[in-house]
């Protein structure tokens, strides 16, 4: 090793360099293939289909975009949702993902590859996760060399947290946003390392792409100023830092304001204030450095005292004005989701609609292990490695991991932001560890052989050691070690890298015993193997289910529960195209995308009152609910019911949130009325309010006839009220496993004499009057 | 001017003479015996007509006319005729040419088909014809709307006597209903019903164009599976397979469902609940079929079974939900068959595809069938050969990396019934060298990429040497 290192930069070294480049390129390609293919479990085990809820909306938007073009897309007013309000899609959606997939589709079709929009959407996420792992390589390479880069890229390619959001079919903003996030960070570090304006501009563009893609861009625009501030405070200010930061803020803010959904928020909301504050500070610091350069030290001291005293006063005034301005707005200029990040208890106190989403809950410890697995243990080692030596770049990744650990602790969905940081850290840790161990093995071997050359007496141990070291060498670490060496050579290119020399020195100091290093290497390899096994398991078993089609494995084979699509298909083919369907907001996106019917509320929970109205209707008795729905022009009501097959996330289990959200706007709905002694139950102990509310009735209508008892398999109890009739609704469709039940609002009765008596008779034959009424409008 | 008038007069005279001559030939034939059996057991009405025709004129007759009332002519999917020769045990059936024909003096817009005899029928000779005609959309549900628990009753309207431009000496008509439940039938003496059969006749010596309207009102719960539109695309790849994609828009053509659909009743009392609905369909696919898929716009449909065999493969599948009257469903079936079973080389060097026309679903009416045969890129001179008339058209389709596009032969036919599932041929010329076009294109593209990257690495574009 030492001999190779000390070779003069001649032909063999150049050959090795070229070989290293080709090898790392090959490894990167393989990592890309790995990242892509590990996400295909969902297609192989299930089918090539869009998953879950939000992806259906994105898919629908992409369909619109590919059909109508970009200008129509910006002006798209969607009247199929939030009836009767509608929604301006072009102005309220982060367009990055849709534009990306739309462009891919357009390019493919332009060269006559007739892939459907759906196929493109399904495979966008896996493709972008390959990009994301390459971006991770670049970022980590800037921080600690290409060996660490390759390790981090390989880790990121299969980190379960990221897989959970980017399996094939999971067509959501995060799929492209994580790539954009890492790439923006890479360009920031690259600018910081090179001081090149070219990269600074690219950085602003990457930031723009991130703003297009995901609301999480605020993480970038807060993290980078924090790092700049950290650099300034720790006396690491340099012109490179200025170039890395100032163009980003100016260009980035201008570009961000171009995105309709952000618009003036880019300068008005509190999420962006940190960047402007640091922008001012960095200019002050730059000015100070400039003045320091032209003044004598004595003059400088005088100037500083003068400026500081005046500056403090000015700053105080500005801060006071700002505080007053911000305090005048009720939320302090922060959006609800951001506030719940800063104050984790905020949402559960004030915004039940944010709290009701499971991915906004704080994570549990097992979920950390599930989502980043062994990385959780490698991260501290990585942090330590970043401190030896601490560079601008490594201080950035340290800051990144610290912040993302905090955020992931607040909201489980932000685990996704933690995952790249954890991968980078673990990649650095692994690479450094391999470096140290293989280095010491080589050192030991070469010193042994030197000893052999010096005195031929100790020939006993040498062959054995050779053999064992050969075994160790032939493993992956050969490649790793070469690559890291290659990385070092690359690192040498930037002039201001002092690390290489110190590393060589350190290597001499950090020599471990041969046996210990071999054992440690084996342990590390085992650790990596466990990680791979866990990731493959997570990708195959935990995160691949599309959630619109459920399967269950029982002793007599595989059961498929395709009830959602069954009923959406029924709605789309057998109802009028302008009929309105009311359901809880979870199913809004799916209903518009799959059934193509107008919905009252959907997963874009922008109007709390509207959702509360639906929640109130669901929690009201039949007649009141009928009136609410009728006032909203609703024709069909869709409920999801899992009691027959034991599907736990059905509407009965979500019902308390409907009550809470409804009660938040309409105080006559009280949560306590639905609880018996603080317990939520649907059996015979349940409160009369609960047993008479619309949701209960629609879910359990004629349920008792299935088994004679009315045993609910989710709640594991017999239902409280078994035999009842519906007076204002009629069942029009129930899916095969009863998971989706669709009811139609009965039309209003004509005013006739003896109305009360007639009503009772008419309940069964109300159907005919409806069809008679309907016909004139057909 | 005078000359023109003269020519006009001659033309009129010739026309009158011609029409008279056809009329006279109509008078020269008479039907000795007619027996008609109408099968009403499914929603495709099949009528088997046995005619014994005698030439009572002086001249040999080359053809005869079959007449249909205007209500039937638009629903008539197919008319076939066979001439029967030989005695009881050794009957030989000879297919005859049947063509739609216009008659200027048709009473009440009756429609005609012209049957050409194999050999002209000499004076005094008789011939026995077996005619099969198929009617679609001829069962009218009454009541028009039914609930889940009711069974479906339909009207069938026809005539008790065979409509014919010839005198019929003796005739009988049988209606076969699917069950013994017959609500009513028009009585034209003598008419009686025994079990599933209603017999009208025998009637003696009816004049030409006799008509005796009858209505049969009976129960028919067979699946009224109507494909409103079917687009079949057959893509020929000379690399060894035939990819078939079929887009269905299916509807239940029977009595409309009204009111409640109760799953609990549908599941627990299957025999009486939703008896007119259907939820299983059977498609007969070619043998050696592979890569079969069954899906719709929103993804796979997981309820299907495939049984492959040597003669045929059967795909048994269910739509996402049971179809009640008036309910609709769309789905796509796709499959692949080996090329060598269907593509042959004609003696003149052209290639031809020999495939089955029609709809693979059994007992289904297709209102509009579009069959697209996508020929490989570079093929020329396409021509389609079919045993019946269809609309033909040519299109161009661009698929994977095409530059000039693929020729698509579009065959379009309305009102298709399973009897239309007969082979048809599409002839075209194709040079095998075109098969290599796309691989070569890809190879050169990659080559170009590598060469440019090579060049990029080796070219130094800096003005100032570093």
Automatic annotation (TrEMBL), chain A:
Its EC number is 2.4.99.18. Its cofactor is Mg(2+); Mn(2+). It holds the Pfam family STT3-PglB_core. GO terms for cellular component: endoplasmic reticulum membrane. Residues 578-637 form the STT3/PglB/AglB core domain. Residues 462-499 have a biased composition (Basic and acidic residues). Pathway: Protein modification; protein glycosylation. It is an enzyme of class 2 (transferase). The chain crosses the membrane at residues 18-38, 88-108, 120-139, 145-163, 175-200, 206-230, 242-267, 273-291, 303-327, 368-387, 394-412, 509-533. Residues 22-425 form the Oligosaccharyl transferase STT3 N-terminal domain. Belongs to the STT3 family. PANTHER family: DOLICHYL-DIPHOSPHOOLIGOSACCHARIDE--PROTEIN GLYCOSYLTRANSFERASE SUBUNIT, DOLICHYL-DIPHOSPHOOLIGOSACCHARIDE--PROTEIN GLYCOSYLTRANSFERASE SUBUNIT STT3A. This is dolichyl-diphosphooligosaccharide--protein glycotransferase.
TrEMBL record, chain B:
Subunit of the oligosaccharyl transferase (OST) complex that catalyzes the initial transfer of a defined glycan (Glc(3)Man(9)GlcNAc(2) in eukaryotes) from the lipid carrier dolichol-pyrophosphate to an asparagine residue within an Asn-X-Ser/Thr consensus motif in nascent polypeptide chains, the first step in protein N-glycosylation. N-glycosylation occurs cotranslationally and the complex associates with the Sec61 complex at the channel-forming translocon complex that mediates protein translocation across the endoplasmic reticulum (ER). All subunits are required for a maximal enzyme activity. One of its GO terms (cellular component) is oligosaccharyltransferase complex. Residues 1-26 form the signal peptide. It is found in: Endoplasmic reticulum membrane. It is a single-pass type I membrane protein. It comes from Brassica campestris (Field mustard). InterPro entries: Ribophorin_I. The keyword Endoplasmic reticulum applies. Pfam families: Ribophorin_I. This is Dolichyl-diphosphooligosaccharide--protein glycosyltransferase subunit 1. The chain crosses the membrane at residues 440-459. Pathway: Protein modification; protein glycosylation. Component of the oligosaccharyltransferase (OST) complex. Keywords: Endoplasmic reticulum, Membrane, Signal, Transmembrane, Transmembrane helix. Belongs to the OST1 family. It comes from the Eukaryota.
